[in-house]
Structures are given as structure tokens and as C-alpha cells.
Amino acid sequence: MQDAITAIDRCRKPVIAAIEGACIGGGTDIVIACDIWFRSKDAFFSVKEAGMGLTADSWTLQRLSGIVELGNAMELALTGLRFSGQEAKDLGLVYQLLPLQAEGNLDFSFVGFSFYRY
């Protein structure tokens, strides 16, 4: 699985993550490898391995400490605490809060740039 996450990290094109609801363990590993994160109001995050008596994957720690301060990265990775989308934004992990459309999908019309399909 680590090779798949590393492929996301090394992708030459921007990789954008949209998070709605829970983003736990491996899900957090995947979005940490992405370039930009968007979240819904109800999104929350956790590096859950620590809560199960395991240590987070070394790549998780390395990538996370490249995004946030080392102390914050260690706290998130070693405690397994759940942190909210707003806390993720305050740490610099999340780019923008996106509202939900009536169908329950994230509404990207509020994003300050355009998405193109190739």
C-alpha cells in the first residue's frame, strides 16, 4: 500500500483530496500525500494507529512533518487523537471548507479556481 501512496506523492500533476466525514488511518495517509485538501464542515481526521497500540507508518510522520511543525506532527501521529476539519485548517493541512450541495456532494463552485477534466 505504501507504494500506492508514494505514487500519489510523486505524481507530477496536482493531486486534490476532497474529504467528507471521517478520514482515519490509511485515509489520512492518502490525503497527506495529496497537494491540496478540501473538506466538508463535518470532516475529521485521525492517525488512528497510535490508538490501537501501533506506530504510524514512517512515511506518514515524514510527510506530516513536512506540512506542519514537527511538534504538531508528533502529537497527531503519536496520540491518535481525533482532530476536526477546523483544526486541520488551522494547522495548514486543509485549503478550504466546502459546503454540501442538496444531494450531499461537496460543492466545488465556491473554489477560487477552476477544475478541468482531461
TrEMBL record:
GO terms for cellular component: peroxisome. One of its GO terms (molecular function) is delta(3,5)-delta(2,4)-dienoyl-CoA isomerase activity. Pfam families: ECH_1. Signal peptide: none annotated. It comes from the Eukaryota. Belongs to the enoyl-CoA hydratase/isomerase family. This is Enoyl-CoA hydratase/isomerase.
